[in-house]
Automatic annotation (TrEMBL):
InterPro entries, per database record: AA-permease/SLC12A_dom
Record-level GO cellular component terms: plasma membrane
Protein's UniProt name: Amino acid permease
Keywords: Amino-acid transport, Membrane, Transmembrane, Transmembrane helix, Transport
Membrane topology: Multi-pass membrane protein
Record's subcellular location: Cell membrane
Biological process annotations from GO: amino acid transport; transmembrane transport
One Pfam short name: AA_permease
Coiled coil regions, renumbered to chain: none
């Protein structure tokens, strides 16, 4: 994420095959944004939310292809922030790094809130902020203990996430064919005509795009992990397979959910998949599925806490953050406690927000996190224009990707309920860019000063 050093020997000789990277990608991407956030998307636009996912998949594919090609041509541990700095200078690398840090802190807050909402399924009377505080404390404890073999645990939890969705798909088919008692039986809620698919019109569909894109969040992590491939040229293949698998899982499962239940029944308080199966006599399903989501979501949130902690160390080493944040404490398993402390402050802020705004907190945080995430993706595509020297078809594809991203970001203005998330992310982005320009000028002035005699 900064200085142009050569990749280490360990980085050059990676041990991952393309299919292993695809599996890790599925695990990093499927999270509470899909399990819970998709309920908001369905409520916003209706059954057409399935189409939103197809558009999001196309936009995500363009972003990943650009990042994978840059990685294959110039492998570097800094990944997308390194390419931003290479393409547009120090201010771009600084902005990219801190924007990514802020987006991940918000993503942690979103996941933290989602875990609390899902846990209220069993503990109805416990306030949201108390549940959030418990999960935040547990996540920090895991980081402080250190977790050797964390990658193996993540792979296991990736299987749990995928298995939960496959379980829903199989049960949903059985329910729709009338093999399970309850619900509407064969056929379900099939929309009538165009209005049935787009009950809130073009504006509702436009506003829903951010939630579809948010469900694909994590693709940029695969760009970082592509450095661990045995063959760096396999990065595009790994991402392509991963996106095909994800899109199939997402579209089929969501298509079944909106067929089994009327779209007005979905909300941001419970998973749409649990809601879709609510009318069927399967007492085990809500508990098992809810538990699987919570376990998977907690692992994702803890991994994100690890990520932002290490990211701040990298920013510090590159001169884009105070040196103090790069300090590691030997007595605490060589952990960067100052960096972890700042990330923990982000979690505390999420808890306070959940206390003050318990009704809309998940929608606000998810919207802001999604917008900042897509800003990072814009950095990736814009960097590719210069790093890859795009022309012809490559340039047209990149422009299409930018339009998809801008469509999703601007769509948050179309919905009054999620508009505050846009304003919050816009303010954060303006502050980051302003500081980036200031720091970049200071560095230039320092480099032009004559050396003391």
């Amino acid at each position: 994420m900064g200085n142009q050093k050569q990749p280490s020997k360990a980085t050059k000789n990676g041990n991952l095959t393309w299919w292993q990277l695809s599996l890790v990608g599925v695990g990093c991407t499927i999270g509470t944004g899909y399990f819970l956030g998709s309920g908001i998307g369905i409520k916003t636009t209706g059954p057409s939310f399935v189409l939103s996912f197809l558009i999001a998949a196309a936009g995500t594919y363009i972003v990943f292809r650009a990042l994978a090609k840059m990685t294959a041509r110039d492998p570097h541990e800094g990944s997308f922030c390194y390419y931003a700095k290479k393409a547009y200078g120090n201010w771009a690398g600084f902005s990219c790094g801190w924007n990514y840090w802020c987006s991940n802190v918000l993503i942690m807050g979103s996941q933290l809130t989602a875990l609390s909402i899902l846990t209220k399924f069993w503990f109805h009377t416990v306030p949201l902020w108390i549940l959030a505080a418990i999960y935040a404390a547990l996540s920090i404890v895991v980081v402080l203990l250190g977790t050797k073999g964390f990658d193996k645990v993540e792979n296991i939890l990736a299987v749990i996430k995928t298995a939960a969705i496959i379980m829903f798909i199989l049960l949903a088919f059985c329910a729709l064919f009338g093999w399970i008692d309850g619900g509407r039986g064969t056929g379900g809620f099939l929309p009538n005509g165009l209005h049935g698919y787009f009950p809130h019109g073009a504006l509702g569909f436009w506003a829903s795009l951010i939630y579809a894109f948010y469900a694909f969040g994590g693709i940029e992590v695969i760009g970082l992990m592509a450095m661990q491939l045995k063959n760096k040229e396999d990065a595009p293949k790994a991402g392509s397979i991963m996106l095909v698998v994800l899109t199939m899982i997402y579209v089929v499962s969501l298509g079944l959910a909106v067929t089994m239940e009327h779209y007005t029944a979905f909300n941001d308080k419970e998973s749409p998949f649990v809601k879709a199966m609510a009318d069927y006599h399967l007492t085990f399903f809500p508990h098992v599925f809810n538990g699987a989501i919570i376990i998977a979501g907690f692992s994702t949130m803890t991994a994100a806490l690890f990520g932002v902690t290490n990211l701040l160390v990298t920013l510090s080493n590159d001169g884009d953050a105070p040196k103090w944040f790069g300090k590691k404490i030997k007595k605490w398993k060589n952990l960067p406690l100052p960096s972890l402390g700042l990330a923990a402050c982000g979690l505390v802020l999420s808890i306070i927000t959940a206390l003050l705004l318990p009704g809309k907190i998940y929608e606000y945080i998810t919207t802001a996190a999604g917008i900042l995430l897509l800003m990072n993706w814009l950095f990736i595509i814009l960097s590719a224009f210069r790093v890859l020297k795009l022309n012809g078809g490559g340039k047209i594809t990149a422009i299409a990707g930018i339009l998809f991203l801008l469509l999703a970001i601007s769509g948050t203005l179309a919905e009054k309920e999620i508009r505050p998330g846009f304003y919050a992310s816009f303010i954060v982005m303006v502050i980051i860019i302003a500081i980036a320009v200031f720091v970049s000028r200071k560095k230039k002035q320092a480099s032009h000063k004559p050396a003391p005699e």
